[in-house]
Predict the 3D structure of the following.
Amino acid sequence: MSKFTWRELLDLNDKEKAWKSSLSCIGHIDMNAFFAQVDQVRYNLSVNDPVVSVQWSSIIAVSYAARKYGISRLDTLESARVKCPHLVAVHTATFLKGERIWKSTPLGKFPSPYEHKVSLDPYRREGRKILQIFQKHCDLVQKASVDESFLDLGRLVFKVLLLDSDEVMLNEQQLEALKEIKAMYKTQKYSIDDQLPPIPKLSQDLFPAIGNVIKEEGSAFIYTDWDDLVIAIGSMLTDMMRKDVFTETKYFTSCGVSNNKSLSKIASDFKKPDTQTIIFNKAINIFLDNGCFELTDFWTLGGNKGKEVLDLLECPKFDKQSINHVRETWPVLEDLQKAMKDRYVDLSIFQKFTFPLKDCDSMCLKIFNLTRGSWKEPVNSRPLVKSMTSNKNMRGDACKDLADCASWLQVFAGELELRINELQEESNKLLIPKTISVSIRSENRSSIHSKSGPFLMGRSSMTRDEFFLLIFDTAVPLVKELDMVYKDTVYPLTGLMLTLSNFEIIGKGSTIVDMFNRPKREFKDDSKEIKLQPVAEKELKKRKTFFDSSLETKKNVEDEKDSFVCDECFKKFNDQQDLSEHKDYHFALNLSIGMNGIEKHKTILNASKLDLMTRKRLAGDQSKKKSIKDFFSPKR
DNA sequence: TACTCACAG
DNA sequence: GGCTGTGAGTA
């Protein structure tokens, strides 16, 4: 007989219960040197090219081909070139100061940090592409960062064992082996708390785990119960998904499969690249005691808190024995809790801890389980976004006054609009931020000031340009306030940051109902436009005057038929020569626009219009038509 | 709500 | 070291 019950197996079919079942099966998949892989594929390079992804002069990702030369993330571009003369250094995409769209950087080019801002958009996109592949197969995926995800494999394993699976095609022998259990399930010839029958004969041969199986050196590993079979099938599933990722994107991944998140995460990191590591329940201690990990390698224990715990539990330092030490010294939870609290009290005379005494018990519970590989947490499919920020660290005089702040805010507003739009299109949801915040940083890192306020999506329908302007318009008064208070001490800034947060996420086409049960908002299913209820009259009037004056400007310029006028931005030129040079600029711009996903037929605001708006915002209110027109006139 | 800090990749 | 992100604490 099995030591597991039907209930524990059936719980796998329930998203709420699967993670805590003793038969749980969780995968963690991690992209290897993700940015470098994205750049390698994006620039049509080969896996054998020593690619590094570069931001200014520092390296942010090192491909495995480049690692062969001993290059690490700590190298500068120069020192990496010394180690590998034919290094392929790819700079990240960038925004130009004052522009709304990012452009890929051609190979061999290195933009100046003084007038550019890095865009990580290409990587985010690829990250989402991969997430979607996981979601195509698996019903419960938690994106942990741009390049890693947790997967609750419960339902998939359940399907393989008890139903017909279309994810893993079973051969005749495999089907035959599972015939009995499937029949029992189908005919319900069991009580829920009955023990399961023994695992089928030859399970181990028929369902071999795929990947790097952790086991005791030199000894045979033998499947004995259903948890072994579940983990083995989990490894078949992650293998299948990783192969799908590879055929779709050419990206290599590493992966860990075990019964819980923290273990799978450590396992996925164990052997890289392109390898999955499988930890059967009976091999957990062997894995944790293999001399490769510390208590501080567990998620959330990597920082100060982890150090404090090592200290409080008097763990041996530098010999990777902390996990073993804690497990062997305190076989009983209560003893561990008492030991930590006693020492906490003793030490707190001399030092302050990052967590209060009352948290010791829950900390110990977690540590007690972590060191036994039995700390279980649910896989949460996380919301699309909580906040979105665009930020730049400044050097030199890159941001020396309010006008510079405004120029960078254009970039930030452009980036945020771009990213929100992308997310909306991909998820078919509307993302409506409710608060906005601007932060400035000066010389010493610690002096950061921020100002935030409500973000009012006022208009009943909003184009992308209008949304961009609204972000910019809302940000400028905030930065002006900061400028007013701190201008004597902060310039030149060492950092500027714009954050949208508190997102309301609404399914397109669905109707939100307010507290009186009336529809609050309406959306056209086929429309990408954002429709919202009107706001205060005052707010509307303010906007209207702005948009009207802007339209009028456009018209005014169009009227001047006698000169050379660009038909895209209505800028005037003295002669055909200047005009055609200017057209080249639009050609380049449009290429980027295509890349950024803005449809070409939509008008976008070009740089000269942006400058105009900056000045208007800074001037404080709507300027006269005359002066607006002046900005559109050629300089000469 | 506004702001700061810790942690992570 | 630069650029993001999240969650918790504080007033």
